[in-house]
What does this fold into?
Amino acid sequence: MRIAMISDIHGNLEALTAVLSQIEQQEVDTIYCLGDVIGYGADPATCLDLVDKHCDLVLMGNHEYAVIGYLSTESYNDSAKISVKWTQAALSDRHIQLIKGFPFDHAKDDLYFVHASPNNPGRWHYILDTKQAAVAFEHLKQRLCFCGHSHVPAIFAESPGGPPREKVGHDFVPNEDTRYIINIGSTGQPRDYDPRACFVTFDTDTSDVVYTRVEYDIATAQRKMLDAGLPGFLSERLAVGR
Ligand code: ZN
It folds into this structure.
């Protein structure tokens, strides 16, 4: 079975539609969304509807959790706070109910899917370095973990008897005796200095992990955010991928 995974769309409809049409050409069996469909971007409602229609699994992200009022935005920066408020106003009760049904994680055989970390998924821990990865591996029961949250494609590998190693996210085939935490990057707000939308496919038969980057209409996404009155910082960063 081939699984396509998208994450951190952040209300960016232009990025989402570009990625979905690319996924369609690849003829995958299923699409999973690892959370943060909304927040920052100008089209949260349409993105939620599209993800609900196309994905067999949609996980809870911290932005969904904040929008339904379960997470304090106290520690968020001003842009994020403004975006949560704006997004709340842009969603209907139906969307809020839809979000409340999103699970924190999903496990199947030796695969685990989560937005942030297997370490207490509802606490939204980042996995940015090998030290944080070591803690996450302690909580991971499966062999392969797919996550999002940092918006940076990354692969952490833990071989028997050794500490986790990190490699930049790229195509690879996992070793049989090694465990992995695979950050699939961001569809709607990449932060690895590559502004193209990102998604990953995983083949359960061959174990191939493949990263794909997709050009999309960044200018339109930016214009819609500015027209909506969202902070300029949020739209500017789309062009630099940071
Ligand atoms: Zn995010």
